[in-house]
Specification:
Blueprint: H1 2-19, H2 24-39, H3 46-70, H4 74-90, H5 95-114, H6 122-143, H7 148-175, H8 181-209, H9 213-240, H10 270-287, H11 297-306, H12 320-344, H13 354-370, H14 389-411, H15 417-427, H16 433-461, H17 465-482, H18 487-504, H19 510-533, H20 539-565, H21 573-590, H22 592-595, H23 602-629, H24 643-647, H25 649-663, E1 671-673, H26 677-681, H27 694-712, E2 720-722
Helix pairs in contact: 1-2, 1-6, 1-17, 2-5, 2-6, 3-5, 3-6, 4-5, 4-14, 7-8, 7-9, 7-10, 8-9, 9-12, 9-23, 10-11, 10-12, 14-15, 14-19, 15-16, 15-19, 16-18, 16-19, 17-18, 20-21, 20-23, 20-25, 21-23, 23-27, 25-27
């Protein structure tokens, strides 16, 4: 949608300028300004977008005027450019609006350099900028509108589609022969991760995209239920077709040991056929449009699948593991039904079975908790001075840009600004030296390949201005479409587009594109040097900080869930779980320099991947605990058990030990190991709950958490010993 909106804005600007008889140089300036005025604004509300766009125009006019006025004065122009870069990066501390205005100022000044703006051209350039920003507004608010409600609506449909894809992958897992199991598991991992990613995107848009806090909390609860139920169903299926209980790590780490296939479900077995049919029915329930009403197949299969929540409905000839799968299908069907109620509103109840009616009553009881007042978020201490990320990055980019200007002048007195642009972009959305190195490498790789494409496109276009602008629009759309997938690929399309723009300005030559590579390499090198020498943030320090944050949030979720499951007061556990997911995403991004293929330390790369996979499995079990604990005390099926608090003390202690080791505040502690969590409950003579109870499921999640946290000790070099 961002790519479509930007292409629409550029197309409108080009059409308007062409009708006004504008020359090609000003059309290029207008196209670049329309692109900047569209992609720079990332605010979520329509009002915020409009205000930022309105403020962006005078910022753009000032940047263009200063670029033209300082053009004859090389030293003064360079000093101002460095100051502008510092201010543009520093302004990121003021949120989305500060980031957008800083980006507009920098990019429009860059446009003035690109088109060699002069004072005599300013009136026409000002008119061009006004047209470009007006076209950006038309594209944003009329032709390709983006409102929080529309974005959330698309994400909701995307979540349903991802959920349906995951159920399809789980069906393949049921029938996959041993030789295809690795490929099927890879597909299952991808779809599980994509479902989780979509859930996080929904979480980020709930506050602005819903009409009130209660609606946002309801959707959050149902999305979390569906995500947890779907991932649990995958684990149960893997266990059912294996000789032993599957490890959750298998669903999060490629290459993890796969349980031996000693209890494969026969393909023609009656139980397998029933499971295959029911997974297909679950897929129908997920994918069928919301207007599927009374008398449809959806109502029939919904009633049948929800019946598996009652023990008497489970096929008696199934193995214990297969019975767990049937229960998992019933819980997944319940989660899908809850998701439909939250997203689509009340549905026809005339075809409900007793099991479906009971599920609806449970939803009504659970919704009571959603009307409770949400807890205020805990205040966090913000770093100040040079410790503030935006301040540090501003100094780093300013120093790197100064180096790039000096070096770029030696390469070319006309196009030195390409080195500055590269230095600028390698610092965007990076937080450590390692991330900057990887981003610089990807930028250079994409540029080299883009030069080859630029040569081919320039030869094909020739003097056909219209065709060149059409190809520019295609490259712009490809830039946005590929940006989340590959930074190198995005850089490829950027460079190919620039080759076309040079062709339009009649400044294209092979030497110019080679110079583009040289300036890109210089800019990346200057950025890396600045990151290493000016207030450096080492990759290991950054990852240690994020790892400690993940562990602390993991401890918060587990402690809160166990307290509520033990009979403690209700709290906002799903928000805590999403904070954990956000911290884990930040950690996953920060270790990319350690896991990148160019990293020479293979053992360290494998250790980093293993560490993140363990944390992902622990986060899954923590989410499951949080989702279950949220039902207490509003559900008739889930009751508090005071013994759980005692069983979870070892987990809390071990998390504290790991955090202390990572932060180097206390390295004398050791991770405790010993009897299983379930065995720890047997000391009171009440025994372990039955296998088909919710309490037993909670114990299983706690046991997996205990094992996962103990497993973190080895890669973190933390000693492990028996309880003292």
């Amino acid at each position: 949608m961002a790519g479509l909106r930007t292409v629409t804005a550029i197309g409108l600007a080009l059409a308007a300028l062409a009708l006004a008889g504008t020359d090609v140089t000003h059309m290029v300036a207008g196209a670049m300004a329309a692109m900047v005025g569209t992609f720079a604004i990332r605010e979520k509300t329509v009002r915020g977008q409009g205000l930022t766009l309105a403020l962006g125009l005078p910022v753009a006019l000032a940047a263009m005027a200063l670029g033209a006025l300082l053009h004859p004065y090389v030293v003064a122009g360079d000093l101002f450019f460095v100051a502008l870069i510092f201010g543009a990066v520093y302004s990121r501390r003021f949120g989305d609006r500060g980031t957008a205005l800083g980006l507009i100022g920098f990019q429009i000044y860059f446009v003035s350099l690109f088109v060699n703006a002069s004072v005599s051209q300013l009136p026409r350039l000002f008119a061009t900028l006004a047209v470009a920003f007006a076209c950006s507004a038309v594209a944003r608010f009329l032709l390709v509108p983006e409102t929080p409600q529309r974005v959330l609506g698309r994400l909701r449909e995307a979540f349903r589609a991802r959920l349906a894809q995951l159920v399809t992958a789980q069906t393949r897992l049921l029938d996959a022969p041993p030789e295809e199991l690795d490929d099927v598991l890879d597909e299952l991992r991808r779809n599980t991760a994509r479902l989780h990613e979509t859930a996080l995107m929904i979480q980020a848009r709930l506050e602005d995209g819903t009409r009130d806090e209660a609606t946002a909390a309801l959707i959050q609860r149902r999305v979390a239920d569906a995500e947890v139920a779907a991932e649990r169903l995958g684990m149960l299926l893997l266990t059912a077709r294996s000789a032993e209980r599957a490890d959750t790590l298998t669903l999060h780490l490629p290459g993890a040991p796969v349980p031996a296939a000693g209890r494969l479900l026969p393909r023609e077995d009656e139980t397998t056929a029933t499971l295959r049919r029911d997974l297909g029915a679950l897929h129908l329930m997920v994918a069928r449009p919301a207007d599927a009403n009374r008398g449809t197949a959806v109502a029939h299969v919904r009633n049948r699948l929800l019946g598996y929540r009652d023990e008497e409905s489970i096929p008696p000839g199934a193995t214990l593991a297969a019975q767990d799968v049937f229960r998992g299908i019933g819980e997944a069907a319940r989660a899908v039904m809850g998701l439909r109620l939250a997203l689509d509103g009340p549905q026809d109840e005339s075809d409900d079975s007793p099991a479906t009616t009971r599920s609806r009553e449970e939803f009504d009881a659970e919704d009571v908790s959603i009307t409770a007042e949400k807890q205020a978020p805990a205040a966090t201490e913000e770093p100040t001075g040079l410790r503030r990320p935006t301040t540090r990055a501003a100094f780093q980019v300013a120093v790197g840009s100064a180096l790039a200007i000096v070096g770029g002048e030696f390469l070319s007195s006309q196009r030195w600004y390409w080195a500055v642009l590269t230095c600028w972009v390698v610092f965007l959305n990076t937080a450590s030296t390692g991330e900057i190195v990887v981003k610089g490498y990807r930028r250079l790789l994409g540029t080299v390949l883009g030069v080859v494409a630029g040569v081919a496109l320039a030869g094909a276009v020739g003097n056909q201005t219209g065709l060149a602008f059409v190809l520019v629009l295609l490259c712009v759309f490809a830039m946005f479409f590929t940006a989340p997938l590959s930074y190198a690929l995005m850089s490829f399309f950027v460079t190919a587009m620039l080759g076309l723009l040079y062709t339009l300005l009649n400044t294209y030559s092979f030497d110019v594109l080679v110079l583009r590579i040289e300036e890109t390499a210089l800019g990346a090198a200057c950025g890396i040097i600045a990151a290493m020498l000016v207030l450096p943030v080492r990759t290991d320090r950054r990852t240690d900080e994020l790892l400690a944050a993940v562990l602390e949030r993991l401890g918060d979720v587990v402690a809160g869930a166990v307290e509520q499951l033990s009979g403690g007061p209700a709290m906002d556990l799903l928000d805590k779980a999403r904070d954990l997911d956000t911290a884990l995403d930040d950690l996953r991004a920060s270790i990319q320099p350690l896991t990148h293929p160019i990293t020479p330390l293979r053992e360290r790369r494998q250790t980093a991947r293993y560490l993140v996979a363990l944390l992902e499995t622990s986060a899954y079990h923590a989410r499951s605990l949080a989702a279950t604990a949220e039902l207490v005390p509003y559900s008739k099926r889930v009751g508090a058990d005071p013994r759980l608090g005692r069983a979870a003390r070892r987990i809390a202690h071990n998390i504290d030990v790991l955090v202390a080791h990572v932060n180097e505040t206390d390295t004398s502690g050791s991770v405790e190991s010993g009897a299983s969590i379930a065995a720890m409950l047997e000391t009171d003579g009440l025994g372990v709950p039955a296998a088909n109870t919710v309490t037993f499921r909670v114990l299983r999640h706690l046991q997996r958490l205990d094992e996962g946290i103990t497993g973190l000790a080895r890669p973190l070099d933390v000693p492990v010993g028996p309880r003292r």
